Amino acid sequence: MKDLEASLSFYKIKNRSKIVMLGEKSQILQKLIDIKTFITREVCPLIAQFEQMDARDKEFSKLHLKISELLMQSLLKVDSVDCQSDSEKLERKEMVKLIQGNLDAIDEIKHC
Predict the structure, then answer these.
(1) Helices (DSSP H) in the chain: which residue ranges?
(2) CA angle at residue 59 from 55 to 62, to 5 degrees?
(3) Right CATH number for 25-110 from 3.40.50.620, 3.40.190.10, 3.40.1190.20, 1.20.58.120?
(4) What is residue 10's DSSP assignment?
(5) Fewer CB atoms < 10 Å away: N or C end of the chain?
(6) For the residues 79-90, what does the mean pLDDT come to?
(7) In terms of DSSP H, where are the helices of 1-57?
(8) Each residue of 23-58: pLDDT tens digit?
(9) Cα–Cα distance for residue pair 97/107, rounded to 1 Å
(10) With the CA atoms of 79, 85, 87 and 93 taken in that order, what torsion angle do they form, in degrees rounded to the nearest 10?
(11) End-to-end CA gap in the chain
């Protein structure tokens, strides 16, 4: 819609029509996406490396601690985000699930 002053009928939009608003991502949503990108690029490769290690390896516990710390820092960042819209809240919820799932996975590997 180029003319913000024009009525919806000008654009031949009828009653009960659904309108989708497109725009730039909010700063909050972008912050959550940045955290998710960090986890995908930095933490997930470490988790893959951790899964391949032998529990008797002396680096096993150190890597577990490093991954746990990175995930907890990410969780704190996600928790500090004050979401306003439903899409931001949904993305935040998914991020918390992702982080907690990764924490549970590495803890399970460590205790097997």
Answers:
(1) 27-38, 44-52, 58-79, 86-110
(2) 100
(3) 1.20.58.120
(4) G
(5) C
(6) 90
(7) 27-38, 44-52
(8) 566 888 899 999 999 999 999 999 999 999 998 888
(9) 15
(10) 20
(11) 59
Which residue in the block uniquely carries the two structure tokens 């439903």? 86
The Cα diameter of the chain in Å comes to: 72
Single-letter residue type at 99: I
Number of residues that make up the chain: 112
The reported pTM is 0.75
Residue type, 78: V
Q: What is the mean pLDDT of the chain?
A: 88
The token duo for 50 is 């951790």
